Amino acid sequence: MARIASSADAVAVFSILLSSLFLCVAFFRLWRLRRAPAVVISGFQGHSKTVLSILFTISSLGRLIALESSTLNELNLHIASRTLELAAASVLCVLSWLKHRRSIRPSDTIIIYLVACLIRDCFELPSSIRGQSDWLMQDPILAQLVLETSLLATETLQKDLIKKSSNEDVSSEEKSSILGRTFFWWINPILYEGYHNVLLGYDLPSIDAKLLSKPTRAAALLAWEQRLRPENAMTLPRVLLKCLIRPFLFAIPPRLFLTLFRYSQPVIIRQAITFVTTDQLRNQTWTGPSLVMAAVVVYIGLAISTTAYQHKLNKLRMMVRAALVGLIHDKTMNSYAEAISEGKVLTLANTDVDNLDTIGEMVHETWGQVLEVIIGIGMLAWQVGWFSLVPIFIIFLCSRVSQYVARNLRSRSGSWNEATQSRISMTSSAISAIKNIKMLGLQGAISARIEELRRNELHKANSVRWMMTAYNASANANGMFAPVLTLVLYAISAKMRGSGLDTATAFTTIAILTMVTHPANMVMTIIPKVIASFASFERIQNFLLEPSRQDYRIDISNSKAVTESGSSESGFDTILPPALTIEGLCAGESRLALEDVHLTVRQGSIVVLSGATASGKSILAQSILSEIPSIGMIAVSSKRIGYCSQIPWLPNGSIQQIITDFHDDSVADFTWYKTVLDACCLMKDIDALPDGDETLVGSRGINLSGGQRQRLALARAIFARTEILILDDPFSALDGRTESQIVENLFGNEGLFRKLGTTVLFISNSAQYFYLADEVIVLENGRIKEHGKWNELAIRDPEILKIITSEDGEPKRSVTGGSDPLSQQQRSYEDVTIDLKRKTGDSTLYGYYIKAAGLGNSVFVIACTAIYSFFITFPQYWVKMWTGAESSNDWFFIGGYIFLNFVAYVVTNMHAWATNLRMAPHSGLILHFKLLHTIIRAPLQYFSMTDNGSIINRFSQDLQLVDRQLASVLSSVFVQTFKLLVQVILLFVSQKLLTFTLPICFIFVYAVQKVYLRTSRQLRLLELESRSLVFIDLLETVDGLTTIRAFEGQSKAEFGHLHRLDESQKPFYLLLCLQCWLKIVLDLLVAAVAVGVIAIAVILRNTTSGGQVGVALNIVLIANTTLLKLVQYWTSLEISLGAIARIKNLEDEVFPEDQPFETSVPPETWPSSGAVEFRGVTAAYNTENTVLEDVSLRIEPGQKVVICGRTGSGKSSLLLTLLRLLDTKSGSIIVDGVNIGLVPRSVIRERCFVTVPQEPLLFNEESLRFNVDPTETLSNDTIIEVLSKVYLWQHFSSNLDEDELGDDNASTHLILDRTLTSLPPLSVGQRQLLALARALLQVYVVNTSGAKPIILLDEATSSLDSSTEKVILDIINEELASKGHTVIMVAHRVGAAVSHLREGVDAVVWMKDGRIEKVGDANDIVNLIEQTVTPEEGSTSGL
């Protein structure tokens, strides 16, 4: 009875403390809720809570009244306890009602209190039963338990009648109770949905509002602005810590509890062995039930603290990613466009951010593991005395290797990241220009260059992998030999003292040693990773510290420097105030510099800016937009300026989205929208499309013709209704009739610009429209040579016509459409084929990867894994046999123990070497080769249907997973699987009764993994796919920086970026939460097994040996770690296999453009003369869109043929058909007697034709040599000679003395081997001249084999001024046509093209609607043009 009274009193004290604490917290919560608005409708759930809480109060009152007849000692204590319980129940009623109505989340205070009440009442129940015979009538404790359970169940449920205004974007996690968040019940609906259905992006719930990118980005930017200066290596880490200090600190409490529960395990093990092996129980501190209860608390606490800690780290990881990507995006938005490269931004936002997103975990694990080592050493000293110094000594030795690795790993990791950046930059440039690469026949050269960069990247990676392999050998020595030497030395010492190695000491020591060496290894593993991560910190910080764009423009109303020096003398200018004033402007570099420019542009005026190539026109436009550093004063009436660049920037989206993108109003004015479409002659194009203006334009407008791209960009600029509009040669891609119509619609007396009063700065060399301008400004050598009205300038300075050559007014340009028609919708990531493999997985992926890694390498790794798993686990059973054997056999067991661990050490190092230095590099090289060759050989239609960002994502994120995770993760899964298998076998051998639970455990684990994997696979694929949207956004942002900032669209771009980033974070976060769910489920299973072991030992203590209990509990201890690692590596493997699935699917689904029958390879001297014949050729992009119909044409050897016609007539399609980029439906093309339909396409593009496309293909990050000679086989003299012919050598060498040039015949050259970015910048015309130089060198190479290639010019001069066009045509005539090469050119200016034709030899072809209308000489075609172009006709465009 004394014991019962004592326990009852203890429960009463606990109840007083519990109720008092609850009342304090409850009153605080009531004060906080007193003015909160109602956000939940009560409904049935709310009413149920009210009824149950009232009944709970009545039950508490009944229990208080029941004390009158109680015989308990210390009655006043129990009265105080029950009174406080009644008070708590009464307050609970009020709090429950108020909390239900005024909070979305269930009350954590009430739930914790009810759980504590249940535990209290469960302890009190035995006392009540044993203390009173009529306890059921005297004390309604059972009713109390039922009510507490019912009330807890209703309080735990999510609230289902949340008001709509309060329910927007509230995540399931935020609405979940504390129990739901602890055990991740809130994720069960996602598991159910993922198990039964295919998950798509819109199926996923919102995530915690605290994890959204916007507040994290804002905090990071504020912390970065407030950083300490001058900066050092710790600046960015400190900034990150400052903005994320709260989530960082929130991970500390669960980490401390995790350490507490971990180091309670050896105590449990020792007490359990002592309990089993001691005959006298009276002197035992621990009883059987208390031992079982302690095991329950420790192992369940371990499960909960592990998951809670990991969840806090996951949240911190999410916020680190959002902060770093936010900093990178903001810096990108505020950098000069010329200083930003796509590859650099992508690598920073992908590779470097991925290297750093776990930095919080690494920091917490460092201090946590150090703490565990200190605690473990103390416990070890308690067990084995001074022998505890042995692991300290071994740790010290191994730490020296860790220090060496840490010193060298940072620089090597930085080199690896830089090599990755170079490869991604080159790959991105190649994919963006894939059409031109195919036209030029450079697939092989570009592929070879990318593969060379890939090999260099893997070489840099191997230097890091060697370091990590050496380090792993050191860490393994610590983990394996510290326990062996400590136990062996202790056993020898015990033997010398005449005693043996007792069971309790042996297994407790092993447990503690395991818990000492593991954190020590983790510390030595983490510290090098932390230091290596500073390479990524350094790269990001250096990027953030690069000079930012400075906008020194001032509001014109604040400018006191407005003078009349730049204005004309017309009355128009004296009336209206200025919209733009420039004083003393100097900008640019080298020959493109602007010097001392003074200019005033009046509001509402139309000013034409003209001049020769490299005169500074575009530089002036960039200066007005503050896109280049400049000196002088620029004042504008509005910084929101409409801008249409020479090369239109079109983000991927629908036509309507692009046009209305920069409109100020949230709701577009559709009347104005239609007006703009009419003015830009886009209505007929849109009407011809099945999806109208909802049609997607593709990456960089690849689904549009050149003219359509320019008109779309022009429509966007007009629709924005800005005060100032800058048009940088926006009509270069239009045919003459369409151009004339648009010019009249915009610039005429009744045009939109006059009606709106828009100030227009029109950059053009088209003198035919100068009369429409209020002022014409002529630049020459970076200075304003002339300005005024055009008729006045022509009279005042007749020489000006030599600067600006008048054009003919004939049709200027045809379509550049070499892509699929506009009606072909682009395939976005949401349209990915819904496949059951997304749920069930694809077992063939393992075989696919193992084949790529090498079958021999894979077999060797698996064999090492199996051997290691046995030899690292069996020593546990060896110690059991040792402690149960005679002392005379000690030396045998000591030797065997050392041998087993030594074999395990050797095998694990062989395993690490094979994984890191055989499997990983081999698989990385092979998979990259497959991916690159699949992409580079894909048909052009594939690129018109797939976003560039999605393709580049495969080369960045997917290959990063292959390089940095897949090999090690796959081998780790093998290791943990084999280890777990051996551990389970030994566990059931040690405790045979547990064998009966084996089927239950297997069924449970099978069911859990089946549910888990079906959902995790889908979340992993969604994460990979959605992240490509972030890459697409970054690519488009870098590409369109100037345009975005001109329209002041930074806020909208930031909003779109944050939305895409949040969408990519959503599946990633849910996947991390799903992993936590799996962890706690499996941890609870391990806890059940551990408690079962102790329960069996307690119940059957007379039939269970201490060795059996020691082996079983030690295996449980390491099996728990093994299981967690298996889960961790398995989930990482699932993520990595997503990359393999994408590569494999791409290889299976994207067929090469080459056909099986294209095997006829002509002799090397083909083509020898250059005769071309079309025989009834019909070609189409698809079955519905025929672009050439029954074309028959013969071109004689050495003849020059000019192809002309209106937009959509099929001119460019004719060239694409020659290059086999467009397949023929019927007919054939014969070149020198060979049907090119049977010849491999690489031969056709590399040998038969040499092409000069409209947009020059240049790689800015590559050398000048590579840009003109991608094969890099020609001598310096040959390259310099050709560069001199195109008037570029002097441009490149102008800043160098002859002595600096060195030997031109050397393997390297001071100019030729420098990157284009490090050389003087090129104007648009000079870039085209460089492309022509490459074509001349290609001709030179082909000529060496005896062949005479045919020259194709696809709008090669469309964007050039007349003087540069004449230079290019003269070079073509002199270097190609006069030497007998057949030349086929699509003409931009027929007048200039026909001036170089030879009468009676050359011909002009007029095309219309995909047919050849007429073939004749120049005069015949010009007459036909004059008859065809009539002002009454509208404008139609197409492909």
Descriptive notes:
- The protein is an alpha/beta fold.
- 61% of the residues lie in helices and 9% in strands.
- It has 51 helices and 20 strands.
- It has a six-stranded mixed sheet, sandwiched between helices. The protein has a six-stranded mixed sheet with strand order 16-17-18-13-19-20, with helices on both faces. Strands 1-5-2-3 form a four-stranded mixed sheet, with helices on one face.
- A hairpin with a 2-residue loop joins strand 19 and strand 20.
- Helix 18 packs parallel to helix 21.
- The longest helix has 54 residues.
- The N and C termini lie far apart (98 Å).
Number of strands: 20
Cα-based radius of gyration, to the nearest Å: 39 Å
Strand content: 5-15%
What is the overall silhouette? Answer: elongated
Q: From the helix content, strand content and strand pairing, which structural class follows?
A: alpha/beta
Mean pLDDT: 80
State the helicity in percent bands: 55-70%
Features:
single chain, 1439 residues, alpha/beta, six-stranded mixed beta sheet, 20 strands, 61% helix, 9% strand
Task: Give the helices and strands, then pairings.
Elements: H1 2-33, H2 43-66, H3 75-102, H4 108-131, H5 135-138, H6 141-156, H7 164-167, H8 178-182, H9 188-196, H10 213-225, H11 235-243, H12 245-250, H13 252-262, H14 265-277, H15 288-333, H16 342-356, H17 359-384, H18 389-432, H19 434-440, H20 443-496, H21 503-544, E1 554-555, H22 571-575, E2 578-587, E3 594-602, E4 606-611, H23 617-624, E5 630-636, E6 641-644, H24 655-659, H25 670-679, H26 683-687, H27 706-719, E7 724-728, H28 736-747, H29 752-756, E8 759-763, E9 775-780, E10 783-788, H30 790-796, H31 800-803, H32 837-840, H33 844-853, H34 855-884, H35 890-936, H36 940-945, H37 948-990, H38 998-1039, H39 1041-1046, H40 1050-1099, H41 1106-1149, E11 1172-1182, E12 1185-1195, E13 1200-1205, H42 1211-1218, E14 1224-1231, E15 1234-1235, H43 1241-1248, E16 1249-1252, H44 1264-1268, H45 1276-1285, H46 1289-1293, H47 1298-1301, H48 1324-1343, E17 1350-1354, H49 1362-1375, E18 1383-1386, H50 1390-1394, E19 1403-1408, E20 1411-1416, H51 1418-1428
Parallel strand pairs: 1-5, 4-8, 4-9, 6-7, 7-8, 13-18, 13-19, 16-17, 17-18
Antiparallel strand pairs: 2-3, 2-5, 9-10, 11-12, 11-14, 14-15, 19-20
Helix pairs in contact: 1-3, 1-4, 2-3, 2-6, 4-6, 9-38, 10-11, 10-15, 13-15, 13-17, 14-15, 14-21, 14-41, 15-16, 15-40, 16-18, 16-21, 16-38, 17-21, 18-20, 18-21, 18-37, 20-21, 20-35, 21-41, 33-35, 33-41, 34-35, 34-37, 34-41, 35-37, 35-41, 37-38, 37-41, 38-40, 38-41, 40-41, 45-48, 48-49
